[in-house]
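Quick one from the shared queue. A colleague (R.T.) flagged Four helix bundle protein as missing a structural entry in our internal table.

Convert sequence to structure tokens.
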Amino acid sequence: MAYDNYYYELDDYKLSRQSAKDVYVILKKFPFEERYSLTDQIRRSSRSVGSQIAESWVKRRYVIILFLSFLTQMLNSMRPNTG
């Protein structure tokens, strides 16, 4: 499995972008009355998927850092206090 250097190289991100474009095309066919109430919410949610994938990809590095920080804190608290 190849490692992706950027979030926009992820297959899931590419799929979410294509799906969002497909949603936009489909929603253009909706009746005029529905274009600003129902379709606005659907469009925002379709864009949200790609944003959440990108955000999660960036945060994956911090999970390891936080875990190591927790382990360090735990090990320091296990040491007997000398003084």
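The chain has one domain: 7-78.
The chain has two helices and no strands.
Added to the table.
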